[in-house]
Amino acid sequence: MGFPGTWMTESESVVYRVVPKCACSTIGQILYYSDHGQFFDGDIHDSKQGLHKWAQDASQPIISANVKTRSSYAFTCVRNPYGRILSSFFDKICGIQRNGKRYRGNLVPLLIQKYGIEVGDPETGFEFDQIRSFRRFLLFARDTIRWRRPMEPDIHWSAMSGHVSTFIVNGGRYNQIFWTERFNDGMQQVLDHIHTPHPIDLNAIPRFNESEGHGPKRAHPVEDYFDDLSMHLVKEIYWRDFELFKYDFDNPGNKMPIGEIDLDEVHAKLGD
After folding, report:
1. Backbone dihedral angles phi then psi of residue 108, each to the nearest 5 degrees
2. Which residues of the chain register pLDDT less than 50?
3. β-pairing verdict for 14-17 and 73-78
4. What pLDDT is attached to residue 105?
5. How far apart are CA 205 and CA 156, in angstroms?
6. Taking a C-beta distance cutoff of 8 angstroms, is the pair 7, 18 a contact?
7. Residue 77 and residue 184: Cα distance in Å, rounded?
8. What is the pTM of this model?
9. In whole angstroms, what is the distance from residue 35 CA to residue 5 CA?
10. What is the pLDDT of residue 246?
């Protein structure tokens, strides 16, 4: 299986396991800059050179050799499950993608037909009942993850622990896992542990949110989207994410972690 979703600087200063919807565009650009002294011109997910990626055939043996010998500092970044699934809905379901089309072609029409979801329209300012539609999307996300129907789960809403685990199961070990909600603190700790050919000043780095501006703005506080049933569905899908990455399940309005991540616990529970 190898190391899907793994990126590494060409200088092999650091290894990063991408977790979708967890600041991955910003992290990728930081890694690119640390080697080249400039940012990639465009969405870092589109880069074909300047950064080793598992999806690039030529990078696979280089990444594999490094990870299996644990030669470089390895890290990943996680996010509150409530905020992450909400962000996935607004970006991937409601938003227009960077190619000018809806995400995954017929996915949105399928959701409109089978789940009664509305997504709004850019022509009318994306007017629709966001809370009702999001809760219906949550049913769909649960169906994909629990029963793999009407389609396989998408990487943007499948559990973070699933992404994080593939790196461990195949022989890797994380030196650090930090929270999107405390991004600068966590990323600085990574940078403090590695040598970068070009120095990084995190306070001067822009946030690369590639999905911003392509869909509706969230009209309500996070907690308004989650009633008792929604919270039950979130727990069913993401219980392990809450447990391992120390987020507050009982209060959707609290995006901050409530404990410290125990790397030994993560490796023990996700290394099966």
Report:
1. -65, -45
2. none
3. parallel
4. 86
5. 24
6. yes
7. 11
8. 0.95
9. 20
10. 98
Per this entry, what is the length of the chain? 272
Nearest to residue 79, comparing CAs of 265, 268, 246, 267? 246
pLDDT of residue 27: 97
Q: What is the pLDDT of residue 262?
A: 98
For 106-129, b where at least 16 C-beta lie within 10 A, e where not — what string? Answer: ebbeebeeebebbbbeeeeebebe
Distance of CA 222 to the CA centre of its chain: 18
**In angstroms, rounded to a whole number, what is the distance separating the alpha carbons of residues 163 and 165?**
6
Q: From the CB of residue 241, how many other CB atoms can be counted at a distance below 10 Å?
A: 23
The CA distance from 76 to 16, in Å, is: 6
Burial class (CB in 10 A: 0-12, 13-18, 19+), 100: exposed
Output the DSSP codes for 137-149: HHHHHHHHHHH--
Amino acid at the residue 100: G
Concatenate the DSSP letters of all residues of the chain into one string: ---TTEEEETT-SEEEE--TTSSHHHHHHHHHHHHHSS--SS-GGG--SSEEETTSGGGHHHHHHHHHHT-SEEEEEE--HHHHHHHHIIIIIISPPTTSS-TTTTHHHHHHHHH------GGGTS-S-HHHHHHHHHHHHHHHHHH--SSPPPTTTS-HHHHHHHHHHTT---SEEEEGGGHHHHHHHHHHTS--SS---GGGPPP--TTTTSSPPP-S-GGGG--HHHHHHHHHHHHHHHHHHT--SS-TT--S-SS---HHHHHHHH--
User: What tokens does 103 get?
Assistant: 């995400």
